[in-house]
Structure formats: C-alpha cells, structure tokens
C-alpha cells in the first residue's frame, strides 16, 4: 500500500471514529508525507505559528515519534530563537520532546538521540541550509550559530537540553 493510500485510509478511520489514537496515526502519516498540520502542536498546546523551516522540522520530528514541546511561548534565554519572530510574525525556534509516557525512559532518550543524529546528518549534507541551532541530549551533535560544535557536560546550555531537542532557523 502506498503512503498516499495509507494516508487516505487513516483519514477515513479518523473521520469515522475521532479518537486520539486514530488522530495520532493520521497525523504521523501526514508528517511522514511532509504535510504539516497545526494539530501536531496540540499535545502540549504550543503555537503552530512558526516559520516554514520549523514546520518541516516538526513534521520530521512527529514522524519520528517526537512532539513539539515549545515554540514561541514559555521561558527562554534572552535572544533565544524562541523569542525571535520573522517578518510574518512566525517563530524561529522549536523544542521537540516526548509524550508524557516516554519522558525519563531509555526508549524516549534513544528516540531523541536518533532524531538529533539524523538532523545533524541533514545539516552536514546541506539539506537544512537555514539551520542556526541544534541542541539536544547528545553533546557531540550540536549546531550553534550555524556551525557544528560540541558542548561541555554540565554547563547551563547543555543541562537545559538534556530532555529535548531544540532547533532554531533563520527566516
């Protein structure tokens, strides 16, 4: 069955029975197809008003089993990409984390680290030209100011990102 057929079937299942399980299945297939849906931001109730690069990152994360945990709201450092808006009023930073039942588990940590590794691969291979920041639980897969780097264990920036993957984009 093609992705398009699976997407159509999942949408029909959701329309027939509007359960959270059916919605999650439908949204995950939409994300796999690269089709952003603002409902992907509803698990933690974050604003879906982010720039196109962030929306694409949300799709990749949702397809990988992560959910947006913060976009433009919440507490963030001064000058953070979360607090910066583009000319259309869209946010430039996102945090991607786990559903509540996976927080603090080895499965959840592995899921975040795998996603972070794949995002760094995309950055290295020029597939994310607008990426300015990538910070997550793995201190050796970091991008700051558009440059790949490492973080020292125990510093404030490193400790603030042990439980999620942060991405910031120009544009």
Short description, anyone?
By secondary structure, the chain is α+β, with helices and mostly antiparallel strands. The chain contains five helices and six strands.
Question: Main traits of this protein?
Answer:
2 domains; 4-stranded antiparallel sheet; two-stranded antiparallel sheet; 6 strands
Give the helices and strands, then pairings.
Blueprint: H1 3-16, H2 20-32, H3 52-63, E1 67-70, E2 93-97, H4 106-124, E3 131-135, E4 142-144, E5 147-149, H5 156-159, E6 165-169
Antiparallel strand pairs: 1-2, 2-6, 3-6, 4-5
Helix-strand string: HHHEEHEEEHE
How many domains? The number is 2
Oligomer: single chain
Q: What profile does the largest beta sheet have?
A: 4 strands, antiparallel
Explain the overall architecture:
With 171 residues, the protein is of the alpha+beta class. It folds into two domains: 1-35, no CATH class; 47-169, no CATH class. It has five helices and six strands; from the N terminus they run αααββαβββαβ. The protein has helices at residues 3-16, 20-32, 52-63, 106-124, 156-159, and strands spanning 67-70, 93-97, 131-135, 142-144, 147-149, 165-169. Strands 1-2-6-3 form a four-stranded antiparallel β-sheet, covered by helices on one side. Strands 4-5 form a two-stranded antiparallel ribbon. A hairpin with a 2-residue loop joins β4 and β5. The radius of gyration is 16 Å and the shape is globular. 35% of the residues are buried.
């Amino acid at each position: 069955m093609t992705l398009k057929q699976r997407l159509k079937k999942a949408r029909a299942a959701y329309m027939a029975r509007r359960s959270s399980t059916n919605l999650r299945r439908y949204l995950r297939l939409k994300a796999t197809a690269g089709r952003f849906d603002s409902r992907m931001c509803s698990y933690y109730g974050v604003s879906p008003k982010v720039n196109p690069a962030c929306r694409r990152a949300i799709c990749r994360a949702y397809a990988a089993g992560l959910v947006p945990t913060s976009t433009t709201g919440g507490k963030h450092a001064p000058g953070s990409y979360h607090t910066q808006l583009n000319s259309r009023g869209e946010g430039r930073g996102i945090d991607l984390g786990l559903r509540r039942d996976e927080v603090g588990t080895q499965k959840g940590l592995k899921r975040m680290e795998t996603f972070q590794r794949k995002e760094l691969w995309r950055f290295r291979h020029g597939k994310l030209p607008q990426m300015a920041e990538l910070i997550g639980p793995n201190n050796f897969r970091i991008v700051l100011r558009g440059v790949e780097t490492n973080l020292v264990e125990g510093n404030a920036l490193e400790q603030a990102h042990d439980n999620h993957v942060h991405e910031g984009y120009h544009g």
